[in-house]
Amino acid sequence: MQVLPVKISRVLPQAVVPVVLTCRNKIWKMNYLGEGSSHKRFDSGWKNFVVDNKLKVGDGCVFELTECTTDCIKFRVQFLDGELPPNFADRVDGKSSASPIVID
Q1: Is 10 helix (H, G, I), strand (E, B) or coil?
Q2: pLDDT tens readout for residues 46-92
Q3: Among 20, 67, 13, 70, which Cα is nearest to 48's?
Q4: What value does the mean pLDDT of the chain take?
Q5: What is the dihedral of CA 82, 23, 6, 38, to 10 degrees?
Q6: Taking Cα atoms as reference points, which of 99, 104, 103 lies closest to residue 6?
Q7: In which band, very low, low, confident or very high, does the pLDDT at 103 lie, cut at 50, 70 and 90?
Q8: Are 31 and 42 in contact (CB under 8 A)?
Q9: Looking at residues 30-43, what average pLDDT do you find?
Q10: CA–CA separation, 41 vs 14, rounded Å?
Q11: Where are the domains of the chain?
C-alpha cells in the first residue's frame, strides 16, 4: 500500500473511494482508503501500478488530481527523471492539483 502525503490527502474524501490512475495511455484501478486512519493510502492495487511501471524505491511520480468526488478519484501520473516535467514546473507553489509522491 502507498501512503499519500498529508498535503494531497487533505483534499481527498474521508471515505473509501475507487481510484483510477492514468499513465502512458494505460489505466490502473484501485481504492483510496481515506476513512478512519491518519495514514490515507491506496490499497493493494497500488502494487500492480508499481510492478507494471517497474518503479523502484526512490523513484518519483507526479500525481495530478483530475477528478475528485465521493464516487471516483482520478489522477494523471507522470514519472520524474531527475527533474519536474515542464508542464508542472509553474505549479510548484503548492496551489495546484499536482503533487509529487516518492516511492518508499
Answers
A1: coil
A2: 999 999 999 988 888 889 999 999 999 999 999 886 555 555 555 54
A3: 20
A4: 83
A5: -130
A6: 99
A7: low
A8: yes
A9: 89
A10: 11
A11: 2-102
Q: Which residue's entry shows cell 518503479?
A: 55
The pairing of beta strand 41-42 with beta strand 98-102: unpaired
d(CA 21, CA 58): 20
Distance CA 2, CA 48 (A): 12
Task: Give the C-alpha separation, 84 to 90, whole Å.
Answer: 10
Q: What is the pLDDT of residue 86?
A: 59
CATH of 2-102, one of 1.20.1250.20, 2.40.330.10, 3.40.50.2300, 3.40.47.10: 2.40.330.10
